[in-house]
Each structure stands twice: as structure tokens, then as C-alpha cells.
Amino acid sequence: MTIEDWRREINALDRELLRLLNQRARVALKVGESKTASGVHLCDHTREREVIERMCEANQGPLDDRAIVELFRAIIHESRRIQARATNQSSEQADHKLKLPPGHTRVAFQGAPGAFSEEAAVKLLGEEITLVPRPTFESLFAAVEDKSADYILAPIENSLAGFVHACFDLLLDSNLNIIGEVIIPISHYLIGCAGSSFDTITAVESHPVALDQCRRFLAANPQIERIAAEDTAGSVARIVARGDRTRAAIAGRRAAEKYGGVILRAHLEDSSENYTRFLLLSPEQDFPEDADKLSIVIELPHQPGALHSALEPFARRGLDLLKIEGRPVKGRPWEYCFYLDVRGSSADSEVIDTLSELRRGRVETRILGAYLSAAMPAD
Questions:
Q1: More confident residue, 87 or 5
Q2: Segment 31-42 mean pLDDT
Q3: 171 and 152 in contact (C-beta within 8 Å)?
Q4: Which end of the chain is more exposed for a tag (fewer CB within 10 A), N or C?
Q5: DSSP code of residue 334
Q6: What CA–CA distances, in Å, run from 189 to 36, 205, 306, 374?
Q7: What's the pTM?
Q8: Cα 346 → chain centroid
Q9: Phi and psi torsions of 201, nearest 5°
Q10: Are 170 and 258 in contact (CB under 8 A)?
């Protein structure tokens, strides 16, 4: 067979692949309709892992498992997107933004304008708020006290990088209360100045976490030097201001639009399942009436079985612990506090009874906040 004969065969296979992909998408839409009718969330990571593992086991090559993982991640991601679009999940979430009291609309975030934190604040609260950028986490948590903001929005965890310990430690040292949360997808773009192209780029700068989340892209392009910076959006601002066609930044699309940067490559992140969860913090305990999630911190006596004894009352009352994270207690080496996310509200009798039991058992307990849990983004 000639090259043209092989190409004709590939073209026929491509048409068959497209037909099958659309057939799969139609079935996925039916699954989405059933989930919505049953009140089940569209995102099911367990099921997604099972699909990918099954396909890797069935794979006979020449595609390797890495390629199978990436291909099916993309297929699953697109299936979830069209499910959400079909059920209007995205528009429903947009219509239920958290409302702030009149006259209290200044929200501080860490980073330069255009940062992912700014995007999260707008998603949670709408475009009408006054956004207050702060350069560091320390200055962020001081924003309410120094009267430059009414609330702050702080990242607390990333689905890949894990817990943001600096923010948690600052939260513990503050008198702020969690009154809301939002989760946004993190998609990284290679952004240059006007007139630049991918071939001209010899160096890229961004926050170290963003660089780490794009390791596969950077490994595939060893000619590009990596430069750590304080934040993603600030990197874009500097790149555009300098006009250096050999430099680029890794940041979100919002930053490119904010500063007039040119997107040279899209979706550099190693994993499409990259999300960051942010907490809205208030100096007041403005807990919403429909709160269904509670965050607390407990400090335990340094003795055998202390953690087991502290968690047992939750299990006995059927309270769902969504997260447990341990942190060292300042000034007390080898002693720890534990951050807990609990399904429920501070007004639930089971929660009240559990916390009372903990305190009777010499467990130091502090409620950090009660709020409406955020839905996973459709995209």
C-alpha cells in the first residue's frame, strides 16, 4: 500500500472514531439525566478511575498507558461538560451567588489583578464587588484589620498540591470566620507579549506551584528556562510590560485578558482534574441559614488513643467527616491540632451534642465556620 492508501484508511478510522465518540457522548447525556433526576452529582471520580484503569488493562498497544490515560481523561472531561450544559448546572450555580450585606463589598485576595483568586471571588460573589489585591498571604489576612477590605478570599486546598498550610495557619491566628466557599478549575496557559510566538520563547516565569503543575510540558521543552515568581497574574503583567518576545508566563486566561497577553499554548497542566478550593472569611459569624458544611479545629491531649476518642463521637452519630488535616501546634513541639470538615451545620443537634461531648473530654474545640458547600465546577 502507498502512503495515500494508508492515509485513506486513517481517514476512515477517524470517521468511525468520531461516530463512536458522539455515540458515547449521547449515552453520557442519558447518564447525566439519570444522575440529575436522582439528585446525584455529575462528578464521580471513583467511576472515572475505574474507566481509565479498565482501559489500561485492555490496552494492547502500540499506544502506551500514559496515552490511554490522557485520551480517556479528555473524553470523560468533555462528557461531564456536556452533561452539565444539558442540565443547566452552570447557569444554576451562577444564579445562586452568595449575597453580601449592602455597603460591605470589598473583598481582598492574594495576587495581582487577574489571578485565580480574583476569578474565584467573582464566581462566588459576582462582578459587583470591589476587589482588593494583596501581595502576600500575610497582608491578605491583615486586610480586614487594617480596614482595607470587609472580607477576604483565601485558598485552602488544591486537588493536586494539597492543603495550603500557610493560609490555614494564618486562619488559626486570626479571628475570622468561614462563611462561604468556592471551587474553580485551574487551567494554565503559556502567555507572551504582543508579537511573540512559541518558537521565540526561551524562559517562562510563574508561581512555583503553577510551574510544578506543568511539569510534563516543561519537560517536553527543555530549552525553556523556568523562573519562579510570586504569583501567576503578576508574571503576565511583567511579561507584557517588558515586551520581551523571548519571555512568557504561565497563568490563567483571565490574566491574559486583563493585561493584553497573547496565549501561545493552552491547557499546559499535567492533569485536567486540577481544582482549587477557596474560603470566604468574615470578621463576623455571618453563617448562612442554609449552611450544610462545618469547619472546626480540635486540639487533643498528648496521650494514646486521643485522636480515636475524638473521632468516635462523629461516627457514632453518623456525621460525615469530609476532611481531616493535621498541623503542628505552635510553641508545643510534637503536639498537633486537626482541621475537620463535617457535613452539617452548627445548628444541627447531632453536631451540637458531638462538640459538647468533645469539650467534656478535654478536647479543645473551635468552630471556624459554617457555610453552604460548593459544587464541583462543570468545566
A1: 5
A2: 78
A3: no
A4: N
A5: T
A6: 32, 12, 46, 25
A7: 0.73
A8: 25
A9: -80, 125
A10: no
